[in-house]
Amino acid sequence: MDKVKLLDKEFKRYIPFEKIKEAVKRLAREISNDHKNDDVLFICVLNGSFMFTSELFKRVKLNQPEVTFLKLSSYEGTDTTGQVKKLIGLNEPVEGRTLIVLEDIIDTGITIAEVIQLLKQHNPKAVKIATLLLKPGKFNNKMPVDYVGLEIDNEFIVGFGLDYNQKGRNLKDIYKVVEQETGDRRQEIGDKR
After folding, report:
1. Are 175 and 4 in contact (CB under 8 A)?
2. Which residue among 37, 48, 84, 186 is buried most deeply as judged by most CB within 10 Å?
3. What percent of the chain is helix, strand and coil (3-state, nearest 5)?
């Protein structure tokens, strides 16, 4: 499909699955080469990273790697605090292990930086970051992103696990929003990730 409509927005194909698959294969090779002697625990940050994690995990060539799924909590009552308060689902022992945090997309880097700080409190051997997509134009964090699948412009995207109000995660390709004409001005959805 070249275009899809999700709720009130139209999206057009931006990154075909073949390009995504090639990026994931490259990341799997890099991670496998760098960590062949490590006790690796992959940490999938839900919800958006589940498809990336699945594709990557079946391609890595490591000695008995493990995967766990993590959800972030930044709410107090019904209001968001803007800061990650709790990592929900981290039940595996991490002390002395190499943790590779899997993100679907990193833009500013604020959330992932907080996740890394929280993980380091558990005394891992190392904490690495692997992201399918990076927005270098928005990334304003000094921490290194160890593995980057693809760099993209500041587009609002859906598909391959990414969503628009929970819709579109199942799309195999990645799509970007189509700009809407409103009077004499063009408006585009702002990316809140």
Report:
1. yes
2. 48
3. 20, 35, 45
